Amino acid sequence: MGHSITDEAGRRSEYSLKSRGVIENPNSDGRNVEWPPRKSLPAEIAQTAKEIFFPDDPLRPCKGQPRSKQLLLFLRYLFPIFEWSRGYNLTKFKGDAIAGLTIASLCIPQDIAYAKLANLEPQYALYASFVAPLVYAFMGSSRDIAIGPVAVVSILLGNLLQDEVDPIESKAEYLRLAFTATFFAGVFQAALGFFRLGFIIDFLSHAAIIGFMGGAAITIGLQQLKGFLGIRNFTKDTDIVSVMRSVWRPVHHGAKKNKKLFWVSAIAPLISVIVSTFFVYITRADKKGVAIVNHIKKGLNPSSASQIYFSGPHLKQGLRIGAIAGMEGVAIGRTFAAMKDYQLDGNKEMLAMGTMNVIGSLTSCYVATGSFSRSAVNYMAGCWTPVSNIVMSMVVMLTLLVITPLFKYTPNAVLAAIIISAVLYLIDIEAAYTIWKVDKFDFVACMGAFLGVIFISIEIGLLIAVCISFTKILLHVTRLKTAKLGKLPGTTIYRNVEQYAETIKIPGVLIVRVDAAIYFTNANYARERILRWLRDEQERAKENKETEIKFLIVVLSPVSDIDTSGIHALEELLVSLKKHDIQLLLSNPGVEVIHKLQSSEFIEHIGRDRIFLTVEDAVKACAPEASGLRRPQRPPVVTSAQGRPLALAAANSHWCLGSPATGHGRAWPGHWRP
Amino acid sequence: MGHSITDEAGRRSEYSLKSRGVIENPNSDGRNVEWPPRKSLPAEIAQTAKEIFFPDDPLRPCKGQPRSKQLLLFLRYLFPIFEWSRGYNLTKFKGDAIAGLTIASLCIPQDIAYAKLANLEPQYALYASFVAPLVYAFMGSSRDIAIGPVAVVSILLGNLLQDEVDPIESKAEYLRLAFTATFFAGVFQAALGFFRLGFIIDFLSHAAIIGFMGGAAITIGLQQLKGFLGIRNFTKDTDIVSVMRSVWRPVHHGAKKNKKLFWVSAIAPLISVIVSTFFVYITRADKKGVAIVNHIKKGLNPSSASQIYFSGPHLKQGLRIGAIAGMEGVAIGRTFAAMKDYQLDGNKEMLAMGTMNVIGSLTSCYVATGSFSRSAVNYMAGCWTPVSNIVMSMVVMLTLLVITPLFKYTPNAVLAAIIISAVLYLIDIEAAYTIWKVDKFDFVACMGAFLGVIFISIEIGLLIAVCISFTKILLHVTRLKTAKLGKLPGTTIYRNVEQYAETIKIPGVLIVRVDAAIYFTNANYARERILRWLRDEQERAKENKETEIKFLIVVLSPVSDIDTSGIHALEELLVSLKKHDIQLLLSNPGVEVIHKLQSSEFIEHIGRDRIFLTVEDAVKACAPEASGLRRPQRPPVVTSAQGRPLALAAANSHWCLGSPATGHGRAWPGHWRP
């Protein structure tokens, strides 16, 4: 590939005028390693900060706009309603109205049911379905997500709260604590969003969430099943229930497949509620012991601003519970977004949900977030914009104003059925199976969360999920992958010998690729691992009477970054190799790496002529030497008075106090010492 | 490079018999992506476990040996003394004896001084210098490390202990707690080593340790300076001290440069102690207020087994302090090994040090570890084996038996001077400067630890160091690097356009390389970032009236692994691209990745003919299409009744409940939606 040297050379000289770094290699067809001038520190910091906090570059369109326009665009960004409301028309409204009515008919019974999970009176859930969607409609980015109380958060909140205050005995206190928790959940979410810390949620792996959701669904489901067994002796209701359930299940599943049938699953709950309520009413089954909803308070949300604890012991509890519930809510939102493939600004969503819950906590609502079941229905009903949320909220408002009393006779059994069918959405066995197939460790995380939730508690399940996820990351950062490369016959391509069986090895040369950034967590390991490759290769060479290894080519292409510990490890590697008169060559270091090799002066220690653009170039460089025609020109190691090498001292004085003691280990066989 | 297709093809058929995976690409000169049959689950687990716990393969020589031989080799591995003692001769002993005497002369005064830092009587440090080195000589792997009490651990232990118990008022209790802490420090170290958890220490970055050590050194130094000022009014001692110091400093530095002078720095402390003690004795300066050591108990270590708290409130304190001190001791050992470029089995070293401290705690010693200053001297004095430690320990024993009383008149000022000169070894400004040059974030960690130790406390400094190190790792795992590639003119090489300015772009094709394993922590970001590259590229194309982007080649070479979230992100990416009729091509996936792409069926969704061995092949595959000659054959996206795409549902049903809502965001300009 000797072509185009001249013009490249020509161009290069011109670059070097632009102070571009270049490492010329006489034996590499004029193809040299390059790097641009290093960025200034502020520029670097700004760059990093941008990637950390604004990877999606949300305020992009504002760039280069006049102040006023910028403000407008920012408002639009903050309140998407200003954007989509323009060009809103009747057709869209029709779709939204239908969708809104449908989710309303689904959400009212669900709310009544979920409130029970949180040990609260039904109206508080309805309040939440009235206020929260309105707020979200203004600030939210997604048009599908249907906002309101959800099963998992409700039960989590219920569990956490009743650990602190008894929901029956000290009712008022419990309620106040609930509002407090909701308030801080909101503050927590809003803060995460505002400070662009959304990526924290990423530490909850997809696998863990799948497991967590499944576990929560089953826990809730089992809890509710009790609701049935309690009324076995009443044929009528049981019939209704069983009928409803037997209708429900297939429909619910049918809906998943056949989009035309979604409305059946959507209005089924309302119908079953109406029917069952009616039956209970005319038969007065409640007198005969059928558990019913009883009184639901009529009227709109009272203010609850005065009820939030901003001091006292409950403040801390509220904070803690709020943080958990808030995180939980965000996690659900994220999962939902993931499951429905949203390209949303997660941080902005959090800000919206946070604001929503803060306002909610001031108007007698408890934690609301995006609901799986309702959002799916909302989507299938063909909503166009968040207006469907507004419609739903209006319907709930009317319900609160007019018809809540009618729910008095609704039997709990039906609500139980509704909850069960709703949480079925959360169980994703298929996903779990894929996780098993793809990544066993992920599956462990998934199962850990699942079993933790089922056998211990929802909080613990969440904790387990986080811990396992973290363990995985820690293992990942302490153990990077390395691969021995071989040449694909008849090409200049070098690939992992384990992957490509036909690769051929170059006699006397070992090529190792390091497959990750070298940081302090894996620097030691990286060095040890490379030396192990070398050791194994040498032994193999010895056994097969092949030319002994004289060159180690370390391929740095995948090494996106390196830190001082990493450089340190390279220094040590270099010294270890020098002692055995093995030459170290580097191939294709990236921008970051080459910069750091330079600033640490390692580049001088290894020699500029030992850094190549491609593996092929590196191999060409050592091939003649490997074939034993000429000895390596590098000087042998300096040795101290005691006849022990001082190479490291020579190589890089400030890394060590004395000389490297690498040789010592040879004292016993357990350790090969380079 | 069309050559050798046939023989390759020939070979391949033979591989496929061996069930090797192969993805044939018609348009890639018969160079195809391959992968070996997937490992069985147990094999995979074993492999992973080995890399995590036995990366250095310590029991290697035992393999394939008869049982008895294995046991022998294991014993040798556990007690290296059996290894190096064979072939031990007089010459070696001479070297060891000299070295041993030298470090003994250094360690005795140091011990007396360090004991003060731990608020203990001098003999306890001497005890530690008698027992610990003996144990280490049997189990330790390093021949240079001189074992004994060290300044940093002593002061740390002192701080921690006096927070719990007053060292003056409740002396006995304090002593017992010290032994307890030492015991648990040992247990902790031994456990870490035994369970091969040494890599935990790697989370303390080199930079952090440099900072921590510097801070500790300065704190200790300043503390000791008080020692001088207290005796300014006494010409004689001051003279001795200042003389000693003025001799000392240059010598100490000289020693660093001129190896021949090491012995001066080595024996200087002892000489100054003897001289000053003598002067104080004849002048009775102590009567005039010169602080002196006073009584040192004569005789060997009494047993302290009965004194260790195995119950009661002190147990927990002992555990906590022990853990910290133990971690500290290990960290120092590691730093030392790093600074002196040891190739040691860190885990085995910990086991040795742990055993050493456990035995120590039963024989009235407090935490001992490898000492910087003494080890350096030991090395320079030309020790050959750990026998130098034995010699030292013998000398200390004699001291304990015979001459300890003579130290009665040793003025504290001299000890202060000795400590100061010893801790100077810990300050490594050069290293700090390199860290600053190489990696700014590391420098922050370094300074954080440094300032934390100086201005708050040693424990807090350690804590800060760990926290900053962790933050770095978390940022690293949430934000992977990506690069846009271009073709080097006249080659088939593709490189980062930011690094190589002369790269040329292929019209209509965007090539992005992902530079790290794709895990749940960075999967979302990876997808967003790739889409951002695409967005920017499309806009640039629009501005410059270039052919619009029709192909996205994602280069997976550096992606060593991918998990379910990663696959999920790829699925989402695929869908997003399909909507815009942009084709996704993958280049050079590794073994892990290709296996997981398969098991998740992603490979079917993207199409087997969309995966290439090299970027060049991928480019060739799309070049004709890119030039607009023929349209892509992939079918357009399926759309739902509402005219909204159901691509993801089609692509991979179990990832989502409904259809991707990707398109929605287009509602407002803040977000480009692929």
Report what the structure shows.
Chains A, B: Residues 1-17 have a biased composition (Basic and acidic residues). The structure is a homodimer of 674-residue chains. Chain A is mainly alpha-helical and 674 residues long. Chain A folds into two domains: 7-36 and 480-665, STAS domain (Transcription Regulator spoIIAA, 2-Layer Sandwich), CATH 3.30.750.24; 90-418 and 429-475, no CATH class. Helices cover 58% and strands 6% of the residues of chain A. Chain A contains 25 helices and ten strands. In chain A, the strands form three sheets. In chain A, strands 6-5-7-8-9-10 form a six-stranded mixed β-sheet, sandwiched between helices. A two-stranded antiparallel sheet of chain A has the order 1-2. In chain A, β8, α21 (564-579) and β9 (583-587) form a beta-alpha-beta unit. In chain A, α5 (90-117) runs antiparallel to α14, α6 (122-139) packs antiparallel against α15 (387-403) and α9 (206-229) packs parallel to α18.
Q: Which assembly state applies to the chains in this document? A: homodimer
Shape field of chain A: elongated
Spatial strand order of the main sheet of chain A: 6-5-7-8-9-10
- CA distance, first residue to last residue of chain A: 36 Å
Map the helices and strands:
The structure is a homodimer of 674-residue chains.
Chain A: H1 5-17, E1 21-23, E2 33-35, H2 41-53, H3 67-78, H4 81-84, H5 90-117, H6 122-139, E3 146-148, H7 151-164, H8 171-194, H9 206-229, H10 235-257, H11 262-283, H12 313-339, H13 346-362, E4 369-371, H14 372-380, H15 387-403, H16 412-423, H17 429-438, H18 440-456, H19 458-478, E5 482-487, E6 494-496, E7 509-514, H20 523-543, E8 551-555, H21 564-579, E9 583-587, H22 591-599, H23 602-606, E10 611-612, H24 615-626, H25 647-651
Parallel strand pairs in A: 7-8, 8-9, 9-10
Antiparallel strand pairs in A: 1-2, 3-4, 5-6, 5-7
Helix pairs in contact in A: 5-6, 5-7, 5-11, 5-14, 5-15, 5-16, 6-13, 6-15, 7-8, 7-12, 8-12, 8-13, 9-16, 9-17, 9-18, 9-19, 10-11, 10-16, 12-13, 17-18, 18-19, 20-21
